[in-house]
Design goal:
211 residues; mainly alpha; 0% strand
Amino acid sequence: MATIESIQNAYIDYVLTEGSEPKSVYIFAKRNEMSEAEFYQFFGSFEAVEQAIWAGFTNKTIAEIKSQEVWAQYSAREKALSYFYGFFELLKGSRSFAIYSIKKQPRGFTTPRVFEPMKTAFESFAEDILKEGIETTELTDRKFFSKRYKDALWVQFVFVLNFWVNDNSTGFEKTDEAIEKGVNVTFDLFQRSPIDNLFEYGKFLVKNGGI
């Protein structure tokens, strides 16, 4: 009896063995001793299989880091770092598939379709921790811009993902460094800065200084 997990595992094995996705669901199903109907009971296409695999990486990472006893004590910055480190630690076990999947995606400024469900899960997670950060005043609530914080984190995530694909350092230590520096710089931008003080001073002068 086919399951979501068995189909995903069989798909990963197929693409890594053959170097490309199956030419048809019929061929894939026959090779894995299932019917086409069983496949379509869970997925509508091979793209949907890949989407579920990537979304699964994110959902599993989130579940694991939230189960840690120290999770509730983390700041928003620490929660973001925990996700990034956890995701790429998990991805090590599926590096060959990840590289295969990433390298066949079209280049451009839009999110590849195969990453869309993963992005949805990531943004939901990001919105929650960023909201907490704003409520605790760890992060600055900026009109219009606060809603875009999650987009900045997604851009950072995609950057690290592509960096990891090309990282040949021992234990991917360069990726860990990229995570630390990138996430910290991003969160520094989310916090109050001298520019915010200057902006507030400017508003004060306009309102009270006769400017």
